[in-house]
Design a protein that fits this description.
The protein is mainly α and 456 residues long. It has helices spanning 2-30, 33-64, 66-97, 103-134, 150-175, 179-202, 208-228, 238-262, 264-276, 279-291, 293-356, 364-389, 397-413, 415-418, 420-455.
Length: 456
């Protein structure tokens, strides 16, 4: 008995020493060598992108008011949805499969991705054109009052391809582990976009359609500079593009289905608020979402680098190396974003009213709840990225179905009585459910893949 107790004590002490050093090992893994430099550049790039979006919303909110700010965010959901579709159909397959290509194969694979990008952009523009034409139908035939968005729809037809090609440039840069290139492009866009918007606002000429024209112009110019600079060799061939599309579709179909279901929160919330309340409520929620974008900046910036890093880790070291990278990522997310959530509850309302004015009074709880949602979403994204790296995008589907269910029920029960706060609560609940289901799924798939590796 004494020997058993002694053995248990020794093992407990060993476990305690390991547990005490585990967080430091996780964090040190992300703060050393080339990984630290690349991840720092990725976060810095996302800081530029998020800061540009944040400043844009402040300029529009201050110049045009809460109602037009709401219209800006409603149009932004169309942009985000289109960008999400592009990411799953073009960016995600390139990120995963480019790690398995030789340098010569990568040139034609990149060219195929550009062909896919151009065809997808043309398809989205055609759909927007049909949406614009549907606004000419009698009111009783329309499911939703889109009259306030009519000018924006036609503007988006012209500028959305430019916004999407900018995202294509970023996706290519991060997939090839070149965050410095993305940073240069996004810095140029930030300079052009914010300078023009500030001048238009100062001269009292700014409105939402004109703001989108400015954004599209800045994205188009910077992307053109990237192509002229030949930062990536692209050899496009129709036959190869079709073959690569068929190969990519095996992965992309599940990634797209998960995108449509899992990202419904960000798409549905503004429209649900506009339907149950008004465009001003959408503007308040959009402003609060932009404020917590400071945390999203860190999360997305690190994810932009770690997603291809996860794919690379699994390709080189299997489940063991992938698990190590994911543990480091989740530990860093929980520590940093958890601190941000606490700060948001403390001073969120003060910051919101200082930036956007009196229309954001009472928004403190909304900001804090959304910040907690960012913590949960970071864990969910890390787990989803791990499933992608193992070429198991379909495994995300279960979590995304659960998210869709939570969003639909929450939108019907929480948004009508609570407005923006209810929308924030739905957002938090959906991210919590996604993190729990996706994390359990990741552990299950890892055990299956590890067993297969041992058997082989």
């Amino acid at each position: 008995m004494r020997n058993v107790l002694s053995t248990c004590w020794q093992r407990t002490a060993l476990w305690a020493r390991r547990a005490g050093t585990l967080p430091s090992r996780m964090l040190s893994g992300l703060t050393s060598g080339s990984l630290f430099r690349a991840s720092t550049l990725s976060v810095l790039d996302q800081a530029v992108v998020s800061g540009t979006n944040f400043a844009t919303s402040v300029i529009i909110g201050r110049t045009c008011g809460a109602w037009e700010l709401g219209a800006y965010y409603l149009a932004l959901t169309i942009v985000l949805f289109s960008r999400g579709v592009q990411e799953q159909l073009v960016g995600a397959p390139y990120m995963i499969y480019s790690q398995r290509k030789s340098p010569e194969e990568l040139k034609t694979f990149a060219g195929s991705s550009l062909v896919h990008q151009l065809i997808l952009s043309a398809t989205i523009v055609a759909i927007l054109g049909l949406l614009g034409l549907s606004m000419q139908l009698p009111a009783e035939w329309q499911w939703f009052d889109l009259s306030q968005l009519k000018p924006l729809i036609f503007v988006l037809i012209g500028v959305l391809p430019l916004l999407l090609i900018r995202e294509f440039v970023r996706e290519m840069s991060f997939a090839n582990l070149r965050p410095a290139v993305a940073l240069a492009v996004d810095s140029a866009i930030a300079t052009l976009q914010l300078s023009a918007l500030a001048l238009l606002g100062y001269w009292q000429l700014l409105n939402v359609p004109l703001a989108y024209i400015v954004i599209g112009g800045a994205c188009g110019l910077a992307s053109l500079a990237w192509f002229l600079g030949k930062r990536q060799t692209l050899i496009g061939k129709w036959a190869t593009a079709w073959s690569d599309w068929r190969s990519n579709w095996i992965f992309a179909r599940w990634a797209l289905a998960c995108q449509i279901l899992g990202q419904t929160t960000s798409y549905i919330m503004p429209w649900a608020l506009a339907a149950w309340h008004d465009s001003a409520a959408t503007g308040v929620f959009g402003a609060c979402t932009t404020l917590v974008g400071i945390a999203n900046m860190f999360m997305l910036g690190l994810s932009n680098f770690l997603s291809p890093r996860n794919a690379q880790a699994f390709a080189r070291g299997g489940v063991t190396e992938l698990r190590s990278v994911l543990q480091q990522t989740i530990a860093l997310f929980v520590v940093s974003l958890g601190a941000f959530a606490g700060l948001s509850f403390a001073i969120g309302e003060w910051v919101a009213t200082a930036l956007y004015g009196a229309s954001l009074e009472g928004s403190g709880p909304t900001v804090g709840i959304l910040a907690l949602g960012v913590v949960a979403n970071s864990i969910s994204m890390a787990c989803g990225s791990g499933l992608w790296a193992m070429d198991r995008p379909a495994a995300n589907f279960r979590a995304d179905v659960c998210v869709m269910t939570v969003v639909i029920i929450g939108s019907l029960t929480l948004i009508p009585p609570w407005g923006p706060i209810g929308a924030a609560m739905v957002t938090l609940l959906s991210h919590l459910v996604a993190a729990l289901v996706r994390g359990w799924t990741l552990l299950t798939v890892m055990r299956e893949v590890a067993a297969a590796e041992v058997a082989s």
